[in-house]
């Protein structure tokens, strides 16, 4: 990863030193080289987390309509010859965005109860992760932030 994408510029969430600090929208974000991020992970720095990169961050990557030219940002652009952009397992689904989420933990962590608006292919490279999946029909029984106004036939939940 470092050899092929180490010089890529990425945005990384940086968690504070206090135990109650979490990753997410409120987390402090820093720009850094992907290679430096990998070095920090290998040194067991569990305060950093690479999440979805902003596709519109670089003006050179926008088309004439100011839309991203690609469904992925760095470091994946530098690695795109090493994985299928359209995995066979996804059938006829068209990728909206391809993201890399990368971090490490010494004590375990949780994404918490949430839902995504898009289909996901989750690949765990090392360690373990437990998923509990609930059908969209259970949304009315969940403690959601916002009132569920509609559940589409394809399972999309609208607040």
From TrEMBL:
Lineage: superkingdom: Eukaryota
Pfam family, one: Cupin_8
SUPFAM superfamilies: Clavaminate synthase-like (SSF51197)
Span of domain JmjC: 75-159
InterPro entries documented for this protein: Cupin_8, JmjC_dom
Identification of the protein by name: JmjC domain-containing protein
Species assigned in the record: Capitella teleta
């Amino acid at each position: 990863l470092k050899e092929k994408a180490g010089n890529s510029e990425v945005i990384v969430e940086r968690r504070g030193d206090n135990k109650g600090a979490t990753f997410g929208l409120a987390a402090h974000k820093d720009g850094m080289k992907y290679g430096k991020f990998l070095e920090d992970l290998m040194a067991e720095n569990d305060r950093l987390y690479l999440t979805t990169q902003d596709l519109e961050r670089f003006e050179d990557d926008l088309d004439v309509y100011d839309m991203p030219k690609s469904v992925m940002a760095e470091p994946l652009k530098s690695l795109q010859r090493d994985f299928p952009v359209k995995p066979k397992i996804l059938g006829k689904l068209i990728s909206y965005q391809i993201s890399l989420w990368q971090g490490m933990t010494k004590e375990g962590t949780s994404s918490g109860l949430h839902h995504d608006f898009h289909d996901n292919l989750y690949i765990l490279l090392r360690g373990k992760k437990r998923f509990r999946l609930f059908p969209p029909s259970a949304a009315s029984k969940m403690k959601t932030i916002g009132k569920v106004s509609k559940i589409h036939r394809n399972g999309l939940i609208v607040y």
